[in-house]
Amino acid sequence: MAAMTGTLSVTVARGTGETNTALQTFDVPAYDSQTVLDVVSWIQQNADPTLTYRFACRVGMCGSCAMMVNGVPRWTCRTHVSKVATDGKVHIGPLRNLPVIKDLAVDMDPFFDSWVDAEAVHHPTRSRHDDVARVDPESAPRTQADAGIECINCAVCYAACDTVNATPDFLGPAALQRAWTLLNDARDGQRDAILDAVSGKGGCHNCHSMGSCTAYCPNALDPMSAIAGLKRETARSFFRRRS
Length: 243
What we know:
By secondary structure, the protein is α+β, with helices and mostly antiparallel strands. It folds into 2 domains: 4-106, Roll (Ubiquitin-like (UB roll)), CATH 3.10.20.30; 109-242, Fumarate Reductase Iron-sulfur Protein, Chain B, domain 2 (Orthogonal Bundle), CATH 1.10.1060.10.
């Protein structure tokens, strides 16, 4: 077991729904290679068993442990305390831009509802009885599609987005990136439906291209470029339909 190296002062957001405004501070033992998720788990296991939070894999594969750490959305399982603590202090809160269920756990429904609103779901052109479609992995559209497929739905980009914060009906970076992926997938059969969905109210043209989504994506994806692609394609579609 790693040796204790000191004590951390950890302030955690507490409460439910709109009353999630209380702050509670805990003195937590500090260890080498300690993650923020380790800190939250220690509090729940040793100081206050009523602390509510969410996690699963602990190795950066599920994204469910995302929280605000010192005001920045992060995967807590991959965030080492030594990289974020200031003078031995850490502030942990629930993801921004999503309703709080309790303490550090948020309701992900608005995030996933935006995927449906963006038509960011595969529209098949073949059934299980047909041959598998052949896709050229070197083609330009497939390259564009591949650039976003490692999204694991952690909602870090959604929490980082100031447009989501100011415009609640904005579809958000993850849903729009997924729509861009499908738009470039030769196997998807509803290109026009995707373009219509992402060009309407709350769609890609609401994005101010500030780039927080790309800057904070833990998987180094680039939602801002995907949204820029949607802006180009929706503009082309508009003029093509008018000609």
